[in-house]
Write a structure and sequence with these properties.
Elements lengths: L10 E9 L8 E4 L11 E8 L7 H15 L9 E4 L5 E5 L4 E8 L11 H4 L13 E8 L4 E8 L5 H15 L26 H5 E3 L16 E8 L1 H11 L8 H19 L6 E6 L1 E2 L1 H5 L3 H8 L6 E2 L2 E5 H6 L2 H13 L4 H14 L4 E3 L8 E7 L19 E5 L7 E7 L7 E8 H10 L5 E2 L11
Length: 461
């Protein structure tokens, strides 16, 4: 299968049930941390594709998934609860073992014909469930060939990707009757604000209380819209980008080099749209777990298992024409510069204090919202720790897995993840404006190659 086709198929629901923790749980309230409170109510999707196993039916695999889910919810009890507002209107988790909506479905398509390059057609609303209740929803879909797709949607206010990855690995370990390698910790005191707080002025450039947001832009009748695509980038191309973005004196990381290349492509699109004097912004999601430990081994072990959001989104803002004209190494320097200020313990402690100073008014990363004078904006979130090979429920490792996050709003979202081929390639989930995607496909197809079943070795089982 090439990059086209494979989107026109019907998914029929066979069964719906609610899976709760296998033992009763003491009902209690779990507050969200200050870093959780920076997240708007967004649901994140993630899915895994499995080839047909030799000796298991779909019914038996669904049974394994549900039994293991009921067991893993004992330790990951936040995923079995509900998010409800407290007396001042802030969200909290009611840990009441409400359970997880679990859907069993059948899709009239073979795995090798599933067009993963265009998840808008094949994944959205078909394979990744729409979460209607609770914190987590799961869908297991049998494919016509006997393959299987396991997908989840979860409330981002409760978990970041690091936490979701922990849960997915624990779920798979439980399915294979293994002990959980990283039991989750919900110790909110790890992220307590300081007394008195200390807030660096740079945080007011990065975050904004929602009551001070600029008015939303009026949609233009011919305005572009966001679409999702999945590509792969070869290890060879990543090394080439890194060499172009680095100098003899300074080696840039692959992520910095990738971000710089993508930022230049988005700036070029904006330049063609005649918004060359406008500012274009790129944010990069930073995980604060290792930053907050600052060499303290005990704190490091606590943060390793911490379940919740420990994220910041620093961003760079440069004029479109400048990004368009300057060489890749100059843009990579700019990426490195804005990241440098946010990869420190003080940045995350200050961010916790910033939220505390504005409560109960929620805050939001400024990169999410753009004013009328702004050009295009997007966020890159590295998924290099995405544990595809560890999400094995007993019928083999996934042939493919990806996050799926068409989050709405004005800003784009891009997540590079390790390829399941294990050869150093990357898989990239991209949610950008249609015009930006078209330019990238016209001018950078040597870097961004549409994901195909041939690349994933999804031939007939």
């Amino acid at each position: 299968m090439g990059a086209g086709g494979g989107g026109e198929f019907i998914v029929s629901v066979r069964e719906r049930e609610v899976v709760a923790a296998v033992l009763p749980l003491q009902e209690h309230w779990l507050p969200l941390s200050n870093l959780d409170l920076l997240l708007p109510p967004l649901d994140v999707g993630v899915f895994f594709c499995y080839k047909k196993p030799t000796n298991l039916t779909f019914e038996s695999m669904a049974g394994v998934l549900k039994k293991a889910l009921a067991q893993v919810l004992l330790s990951h009890y936040a995923f079995a609860g509900e998010v409800v507002p407290n007396t001042v209107g802030e969200p909290e988790i009611l840990c009441n073992n409400r359970g997880v909506d679990f859907v069993e479905a059948f899709a009239e398509v073979d795995l090798e014909d599933l067009n993963l390059y265009n998840p808008d057609d094949t994944v959205e609303g078909k394979l990744v469930p729409e979460k209607k209740h609770g914190v987590l929803a799961v869908q297991a879909t049998e494919l016509r060939c006997g393959g299987l797709v396991v997908a989840c949607s979860f409330d981002h206010r409760v978990a970041d990707a690091y936490s979701a990855n922990m849960f997915l690995v624990s779920w798979a370990e439980m399915a294979q009757s293994k002990p959980i390698s990283t039991p989750p910790s919900f110790r909110r005191s790890l992220l307590n604000p300081r007394r008195p707080g200390s807030i660096h002025p740079s945080l007011d450039d990065m975050y904004i209380p929602v009551n001070k947001l600029p008015p939303p832009k009026d949609p233009q009748p011919d305005s572009d819209y966001l679409i999702s695509r999945i590509y792969y980038i070869t290890a060879e191309q990543l090394n080439h980008l890194q060499s172009l973005a680095s100098t003899k004196a300074c080696q840039r990381t692959k992520l910095e080099s990738f971000c710089a290349f993508l930022w230049k492509m988005v700036a070029k699109w904006a330049f063609i749209q005649n918004v060359d004097k406008k500012i274009t912004k790129m944010g990069v999601v930073v995980d604060g777990r290792t930053r907050l430990t600052d060499g303290d081994e005990h704190k490091a072990s606590l943060m390793d298992s911490y379940f919740g959001n420990v994220l910041s989104i620093p961003y760079g803002a440069n004029q479109v024409d400048e990004l368009n004209e300057k060489p890749l190494e100059w843009v990579a320097d700019k990426v490195h510069e804005f990241l440098e200020g946010a990869v420190t313990k003080e940045h995350f402690l200050g961010l916790i204090d910033w939220v505390e100073a504005h409560r109960p008014v929620p805050g939001l990363a400024k990169i999410y919202c753009s004013g009328t004078e702004d050009g295009p904006a997007f966020v890159v979130s590295s998924g290099q720790r995405f544990p595809v090979s560890k999400v094995d429920f007993g019928w083999g490792t996934p042939g493919f897995g990806s996050y799926h996050f068409p989050w709405g709003g004005d800003a784009g979202y891009v997540m590079p993840m390790p390829s399941p081929t294990g050869n150093g390639d990357w898989v990239v989930y991209m949610h950008l404006l249609k015009g930006q995607v078209e330019l990238i496909e016209a001018e950078a197809t040597h870097v961004f190659r549409p994901l195909t079943s041939t690349y994933l070795n999804f031939g007939s089982n």
